[in-house]
């Protein structure tokens, strides 16, 4: 089981930027996929994006073009850089790690970090 700790959330004005970090308890180099989901109050969990072992990335359509996921294998950390933030980006952001390619639902999850975008 991978332990994940997110950080970097906070309050930011619309149009601003924020970078979230997800630190893993073990080497991420061999993890099949890692990524981010978010959940706003009263809404379903939504994919923000994934980064795969190959380095390929995938983004949810609501954030595509405004977000970049990257990873630092030496630090066992995955990052989510968000630009041009909108109030509708307000949510709790969760990091996940899918070690074996079974899908995020079968992976490990962090505790979440709150992002609030003010208008």
Task: Spell out the helices and strands N to C.
Answer: EEEEEEEEEEE
Estimate percent helicity. under 10%
- Termini separation comes to 39 Å
Structural class: mainly beta
- Uncertain runs: none
List the helices and strands and how they pair.
Elements: E1 4-7, E2 10-13, E3 18-24, E4 33-39, E5 46-52, E6 57-59, E7 67-72, E8 77-82, E9 91-98, E10 108-109, E11 113-118
Parallel strand pairs: 2-11
Antiparallel strand pairs: 1-3, 3-8, 4-5, 4-9, 5-6, 7-8, 9-10, 9-11
Task: Describe the model.
This protein is mainly beta. It has no helices and eleven strands. The protein has strands spanning 4-7, 10-13, 18-24, 33-39, 46-52, 57-59, 67-72, 77-82, 91-98, 108-109, 113-118. Strands 2, 4, 5, 6, 9, 10 and 11 form a seven-stranded mixed beta sheet that branches. Strands 1-3-8-7 form a four-stranded antiparallel beta sheet, with no helix packed on it. A hairpin with a 4-residue loop joins strand 5 (46-52) and strand 6. The radius of gyration is 13 Å and the shape is globular. The chain starts with a strand and ends with a strand.
Descriptive tags:
mainly beta, 119 residues, 7-stranded mixed sheet
What's a quick, concise take on this entry?
This protein has no helices and eleven strands. The chain has 119 residues and is an all-beta fold.
């Amino acid at each position: 089981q991978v332990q994940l700790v997110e950080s970097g959330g906070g309050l930011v004005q619309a149009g601003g930027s924020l970078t979230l970090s997800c630190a893993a308890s073990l080497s991420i180099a061999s993890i099949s996929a890692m990524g981010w989901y978010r959940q706003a109050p009263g809404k379903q969990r939504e994919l923000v994006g994934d980064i795969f072992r190959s380095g390929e990335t995938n983004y949810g359509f609501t954030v595509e073009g405004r977000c970049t996921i990257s990873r630092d294998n030496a630090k066992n950390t995955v990052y989510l850089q968000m630009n041009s933030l909108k109030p509708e980006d307000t949510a709790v952001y969760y990091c996940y790690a899918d070690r074996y390619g079974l899908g995020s639902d079968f992976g490990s999850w962090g505790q979440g970090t709150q992002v609030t975008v003010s208008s």
